[in-house]
């Protein structure tokens, strides 16, 4: 990873540096083909791409004391042990390699099929093991002592995009049987991307993925290419920032904002 570390971390330029994290066990799947098309489109446009193909890598998704070397306690405190290991340079080599990629990237793409209304276990394990305390979260502003999160944090300066294949083609929405995908993906988009400081692009959703024909695939691939190439200047979800004045000291939205409304949508401006 020495070549990656020569770049300035998180600096956005006209040429994107993209970390593409893929979570699918079959490279010949719809998801795998979309990844190939998307990566090729980025490279053809002059952007740089580094991949973490989690299944191909044999990524271990399980957090254990071995992740933290001699920074781990007899009684494992995952958050504290991970931060101490980070400071000592004692994190497991596979975690450090992913940190190198994130340090190099200004754009992060997470691509996965929606399984049981969530990310596959291997991707959840990537998030659990890589986004450690003191690195992606639990980072404090030295001037105020306030924890940087929700619009600021350890991954600030980057943009994030989720590319999601969904088996269902209908029944999705505020009154749909399968639920509203905006709410289903809220833990990832708001609770992970935005929490760690990344700007959040509108996710790319491929619906009815189990029944997509050739014409459907062609349309989905074209949409993905267009969305990827628009990332540097494209719109982002207008989430409210922690320190923008919209929340009180308890983290509750002020009564004057989104009056009478409840639910996850109140955390979007407008």
Explain the overall architecture:
The chain contains eight helices and eight strands, in the order E-H-E-H-H-H-E-H-E-E-E-H-H-E-E-H. It has helices spanning 30-44, 54-57, 78-88, 93-104, 121-130, 181-184, 186-194, 214-229; strands at 17-22, 48-53, 107-113, 139-140, 147-148, 159-165, 199-200, 204-206. The strands form two sheets. Strands 1, 2, 3, 6, 7 and 8 form a six-stranded parallel sheet that branches. A two-stranded antiparallel sheet has the order 4-5. Strand 4 and strand 5 form a beta hairpin. The model is unreliable at 1-12 (pLDDT under 50).
CATH fold node name of the largest domain: Rossmann fold
Low-confidence stretches: 1-12
Helix percent reads 25-40%
Q: Mind telling me the C-alpha Rg?
A: 19 Å
What is the annotated CATH architecture of the largest domain?
3-Layer(aba) Sandwich
Query: Structural class, from helix and strand content?
Result: alpha/beta
Beta-strand residue percentage: 5-15%
Q: Provide the succession of SSEs.
A: EHEHHHEHEEEHHEEH
The count of domains is: 2
- The number of strands is 8
**Shape by Cα distribution:** globular
Sheet bearing the most strands, described?
6 strands, parallel
Output the number of helix runs. 8
Taking the alpha carbons of the first and last residues, their distance comes to: 42 Å
Can you identify the CATH class of the largest domain? Answer: Alpha Beta
């Amino acid at each position: 990873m020495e070549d990656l570390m020569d770049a300035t971390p998180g600096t956005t330029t006209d040429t994107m540096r993209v970390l593409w994290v893929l979570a699918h066990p079959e490279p010949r799947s719809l998801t795998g083909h979309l990844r190939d098309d998307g990566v090729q489109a980025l490279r053809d446009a002059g952007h740089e791409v580094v991949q973490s193909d989690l299944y191909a890598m044999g990524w271990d998704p399980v957090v254990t004391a071995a992740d933290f070397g001699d920074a781990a306690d007899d009684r494992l405190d995952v958050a504290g042990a991970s931060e101490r290991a980070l400071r000592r340079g004692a994190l497991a080599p596979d975690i450090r390699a992913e940190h190198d990629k994130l340090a190099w990237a200004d754009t992060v793409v997470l691509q996965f099929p929606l399984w049981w209304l969530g990310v596959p276990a291997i991707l959840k394990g990537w998030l659990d093991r890589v986004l450690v305390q003191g690195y992606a979260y639990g980072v404090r502003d030295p001037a105020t002592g306030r924890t940087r999160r929700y619009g600021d944090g350890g991954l600030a300066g980057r943009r994030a995009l989720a590319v999601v294949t969904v088996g269902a083609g209908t029944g999705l929405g505020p009154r749909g049987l399968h639920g509203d995908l905006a709410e289903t993906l809220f833990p990832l988009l708001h609770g992970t991307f935005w929490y760690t400081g990344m700007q959040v692009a509108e996710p790319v959703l491929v619906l009815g993925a189990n029944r997509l024909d050739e014409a459907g695939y062609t349309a989905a691939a074209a949409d993905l290419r267009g969305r990827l190439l628009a990332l540097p200047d494209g719109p982002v979800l207008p989430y409210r920032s922690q320190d923008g004045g919209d929340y009180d000291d308890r983290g509750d939205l002020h009564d004057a904002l989104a009056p009478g409304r409840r639910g996850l949508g109140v955390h979007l401006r407008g």
